[in-house]
Structure formats: C-alpha cells, structure tokens
Amino acid sequence: MLSVYILLLFSGKLNAETQEKPIVYDTITWSKLEKSYDLKGHWYFHRGDSLKWADPMADDRHWHNLLSDSARHVADSLYTDKYGLMWFRTHLWIDTSVTSKMMAMSIGLVGACEVYIDGKYFISQGKLGLNGQKEVSGFTVKPKPYPFYFTEPGAHTIAFRVSNFSEEEQTYYLNFGSNIDIAQFSVEINRLDEEIKGLTDFSNEASILIFAGIFITLTLFHFVLFLYYRKNRTNLYYSLFTFLLFCIFFGSYQIISGADLHTTQQIVLIAICAVFLVPMFFLALLYQVFYKRLPTLYWVLMVVLIISGYAFFFTEYNTLGASMLAVFLIGGALETIHIFIRAWFRKKDGAGIFLTGILIPPVGTFLLWLTGYLFGKFGYEEIHDNFSDLLGKFFGYSLLLGVSVSMTIYLARDFARMNKRLQLQLREIKQLFEKTVLQESERKKILEDQNTELERKVEERTAEVLVQKAELETKNRDILDNLNYARRIQSAILPETQLIYKTLADSFILYIPKDIVSGDFYTFSQKDKQVIISAADCTGHGVTGAFMSMIGSSLLNQIVNERGITQPAQILNQLNSGIAEALKQNENDVNDGMDIALCSIDLNNLYLEFSGANRPLWIIRNGEWSEIKADKMAIGGFRINRESVFTNHRMQLQKGDSLYLFTDGFADQFGGPSGKKMLSMRFREFLLTLQNIPMKEQEQILSRFFNDWKKNMDQVDDVLVIGIRV
C-alpha cells in the first residue's frame, strides 16, 4: 500500500488533490516563546533546486507534507541519495504580540543549508554542495542562535535550501533526531533574551571542567608517584583510570561547547574508546590493590573487549560485537562483585574503604529520593521537584567521585603507613646504635677497671681485701644501672596512662613490679571508639619476665595496630603463634609463656568482647559480681605443639558496669594477721566494697590495702590490676 502511495505521489496523480488543500500556518505568539518553540509541523519538502522556491508566493501545496507518514518515508529515502539538494518550506502566522520583537532561530542540521525568510536570504549554516561538490557541514551539538524579527504581523514564509549529507563516514555515530523524524533536521524559535541567557549559562560546562580538572590532577599526581616508586603499580593503573575519565569529561566539554562536526566525530570516537577501557583499568586497579597481580581472567576479558570493539568498528558483524560486549559487561560486573566479596571476607586491607565508596551513590540517592518524597507528601512540591532533579546528577557524580576518592584515600593511607614504618625502623636503628655505643662504653670501663685493679694488686698487695670490696661495689652498681636502664626501656614500651585515662576517664592501672623490672605488662590500643586493653603475666619475674613482657608487648602492638586484628580470640591465637616463632619453641626446650586477659570495648554501643588465657574478667553490675572465665591454657609454653583456639566471649554492657582485669600477683600475696595468701575471694569481696567510689580513688585504696596486707613480708610476685567503669 505504501509503495502504491509513493508511486502515485511521484506520478503527480495526487497533485490535483493536494493543490486544492489550503495552506496551513503555525501561529507564533509571544506567550508560545516563553519556552523554545519547535517548528515541528506543516513542513513541505521538494527534491531539486530552484531559488524561485524561496519566494513566499511560490506554490508549495503540491509538495510533500511531512505530517504524512508516507511523505516522511519518501523524504527519508530521498535524503539518503548522494549529492542531492532539497527545499523545505513552512508558513507562519505572526501575532501582533511578536511584531518587531527580537527572536532567535536555532537550526539542528547535520548537513549544510541556506535560510530564506519571506524570499530574502537570511543566513547560511555550513557550505552547500553545489554541482556535485561535497558540502561543508555547519553542524555543532550546541546550535548557534541567529537573531531576527518580523516588522509586520500576518503570513510569513521560511524556506530552507538543504544539501544532503554526502560524506558517508560522517554519519558515523551521529543521529541527533528531530520531532519531524527526517534527515537530522530541526528548527526552534526562542526569545533572543532567553537565548542570550542560555549562551551565558556556563554551569554545565563549569561542572564538567571541574571534574576534568580533578581527574587530570589525580592522573599527573599518581603518575609522578609511580615514576618515583615503580614497584607499586597501583599508582600507574590509577593514573590511567583517571586519565580515561578526564578524556570522557574533557571530550564532553569540547562537544557541548560547540565543536565542529569533524572534531565532534573524533572526540566521540575517543570517548567511546575511553568508556570501553575504563572498566578494564578499574579491574586492573582492584587486582593490584587486593592481589598484587593480574590473573588469567583479566586477560580473557581484555580479549573479549578487543573482539567486541573490532566487530563494531571494523566489520559489519554488529551482532557479534554486541554479544561479546554483553559477555564482557556481565563478566566484568560479576568479577568486580567477586573481588569485593572475597576481599571483604578475607579482611583485605582497603576493602572497607572501597565498599564505602561504592555504596555511597546508591545509599545517597535513596536518601535524596526519600527526602524529596517526604517533602512531596507534606505539600512541598517545589522542593520535591528540586530533589528529583538532583537524583541523576548525584548518582552519576558520586559514582565517579566515590571510586576516585576511595582510591585516593587508600593510596594516601598506604603512603602514610609506609612513611611511619620507615620512621619506626630509623628509630629502632638509632636505639640499637645508642645501645651498642653504651655497651662499648661499659666494656671499656670494665677493661679500665680491670687494668686498674691489676695495677693495684701489683702495687698494693696489702690492700687486697679493700680492692675486692671496691670491685664488688662497682659491679653491683653496674648491674643496678643496667636494671634501672632496662626499667626505663620497659616503661617506655608500656602505653602512657594519660592517654588511657583520656579515653577511659573513669579507670585506673595499679602497677607494682616485684623487682626493678617486671614480668607483668599491659597494652592499650584505640580505633575510633573501640578500645583494646589487656593485662598479661609472663613466666617468672625480674629480668626473665621483663624480656618476655617486651616480646609480648611488641607482638600485641603488631597484631592490633599493624595487622588490624581486633577480635580478642584471634589476637590471642596470633599472639600464641608469634611467641612460638619468636622463641623457636618448636625447635628447643624453651617453655616460657604468659597468662593474659584481653578485652575489646565498643564505647559507642557498649559491647564487650573478651578472651583470656588462664586469666578471667570480673564484672560488677549494680553490686553483683560475675565472671567471664578464661580458657585453661597459657600463651606459649608446653602446649605449643597442640592446636590452640581461644574462645571469644561477647556481651552487652550497661552504663555504670565495672570491669577488672588483673594478674595473680595481688591475690597470691602473703600477709595479713596469719601470714597467709590473700586469695581471690578476699580480693573480690574487697572490690565489692569499693563500687560507690571513683576508679582513681579505688587505685589508691587498693594500693594501701595491698601494703597493709603485705606489711614487712617480701612481695611474692609482680602486681597488675586494671579497673574500668563504662
């Protein structure tokens, strides 16, 4: 039926009917121009070329009317012919409200054209292809507004002399459409002042340039970091990832700012390649961060992407290209999800940062939608509309910035950690150097003392006893000096109590070594509002216990602060393995170890996690005593050949609960009226009497109670008691 209609149209058999039809006008009023008015109806077109057709008196009623589906089909088929010229005409009825007022015409056309108003030449866009010549397109994504006005109301005619797009390659990826569905051709009329406002509104360009600036800055910064430290390829992949995003944004800016057709096509091609490559470099970035390598699956996806791009751009197998692209997108998305899930459950460093960046866009978008929805429910429609307009921009921008900011934070934190490790190593080297110098000085001093002693023996045989006494006093003084120095080192390793009291305001640490140095020690770490505190008792006391306490304290700091392990049971399992490795207990008969009580407290939610090796945790709530028992096994020692898994206890705390961690030195002290042990029961009952007293005062009272109980008897063991009131 359609072919018959077209045949009749070409044969002229429909001319008699069309010529009798009256001319239809688009009425233009000033109110219609409050928004851009699209001349989308009552266009007439004719193939061929004659300047007479610019005359408003030319009869175009026998021309094809674009409102007819069959006519539009004919026009589309005619327009695809090479080196053809066509004319388009439309008739306007100008209201008196529009007379002598400045308007602007915007033309959306891929090819070239000349415009005539009431038979007079108005403007040209591009250069027409006449006499078989190739026209020059005047296309830009942001059409230029051409000012004009009508001096008289009534009927007016606008005619377009159009050269069809003869460069076949230039139709590539460019089909901007129009309301009349023909030849990428559209015409809009607007008020000139509104067009000027649009031309001076650079908000979209500014936001795109800001993002382009952010991404090129990140590109240069991280590429320079890679050049200085090439072993870490994370900076290289991240700089390439941000460079592709820069290409997309800067290319978008070039397009919307009014680039010509040829430039636009090149930019579009570059942007498409960048869009294709962004997922690949994002995957490479994730692999490098979490696994430090690119697996075989990555190269498989790369091959699939290359095949897809080749099929799209260099062959006619578009279906194959689309299928391969779908395989790549699905495979890449599934692999990205797999990487994040695996990294999260394996507690890979940085997994939390990346997941936060990925979750910000959907969560933030939902919250914006919910806020706008609530405003709409309560009648604030304008605010609701503003929130609705923000949803798409927020999701797009936050998705791009979420990944970039997460990566920047991760790399900055990684750099800071490396710097801290270097500083720590330098500090340790300095301490070892100072210790070596001190030992050398002491060795020289001993040699000098020995030489002096030999000379004295030769010269003064009669003063042998006095010389021996002086020698013993010197050695005793050296030993005491070394022990006092060791005590200072041990004190420096222990956490500062002021730091603990700053976080745990109502708490105390009662620490009474038996000798100059102690086998008891405590540790403290804080991560935001989560604190990890422990009380440990090493095998023996004095120098033996002090060495073990330094090893245990160093291992605990490494486990918590460097490895980021915060669950008490896991900490004790790691500590047990660390002691075994440090003392090589699987290879020799060293059976030293320690007992420890360790708990983690969430100060925000008042949750407690506890695990203990032979040392329990006491909790006093509302005057009632309760105990979380420890596992009946020590850290290290004879049990090292058996598999060790410590129990993790978790409970909800209440405001005002009192927690006590302690070693056995307090309860094992001999004294009192009968010279017997104090025992845990007496210690517990005495703590129950102190519950209405602040923790700082409890420390003083416990110290006096211990000294009164001990009296003149020797202290049996090191004493450590930690009290915390939540």
Overall average residue pLDDT: 79
Report the principal-axis shape: elongated
Name the poorly predicted regions: 1-19, 78-83, 167-183
Distance between the termini: 87 Å
Pairing-aware structural class of the strands and helices? alpha+beta
Per DSSP, the total helix count is 17
Number of DSSP E strands: 24
Question: Which tags fit this structure?
Answer:
single chain, 726 residues, alpha+beta, seven-stranded mixed β-sheet, six-stranded antiparallel β-sheet, 17 helices, 24 strands, 51% helix, 18% strand, disordered N terminus
Description:
It is built from 17 helices and 24 strands. By secondary structure, it is α+β, with helices and mostly antiparallel strands. Helix 5 (203-228) runs antiparallel to helix 6. Strand 7 (112-117) and strand 8 (120-125) form a beta hairpin. Mean pLDDT is 79; it is low at 1-19, 78-83 and 167-183. 51% of the residues lie in helices and 18% in strands.
